[in-house]
Specification:
This is Addiction module protein. The protein has 75 residues and is mainly α. Helices cover 76% and strands 0% of the residues.
Length: 75
């Protein structure tokens, strides 16, 4: 199952532009300290991450469902 997920992640990553890849990388990095320490993030950190994500979305840094469906149709 892990290999299937790894392959799927690789396929999706190739569809993203540089800005989106940076956003995904930032999200992935937020998981690593918590996984390594087996800790949850604080409510304050959670709220900061939500605010940052909202800023990216408000700045137009996202894909619509229609965009994703168009990309998937090209596979």
């Amino acid at each position: 199952m892990s290999q299937v997920i790894d392959n799927e992640l690789q396929r999706y990553i190739t569809l993203l532009n540089l800005s989106q890849k940076k956003s995904i990388l930032a999200v992935i990095k937020t998981f690593l300290p918590s996984i390594e320490k087996n800790e949850r993030i604080s409510r304050e950190q959670y709220n900061i991450e939500i605010a940052e994500a909202e800023q990216r979305m408000n700045g137009g840094d996202f894909l619509t469902q229609e965009d994703v469906e168009k990309e998937v149709a090209k596979w």
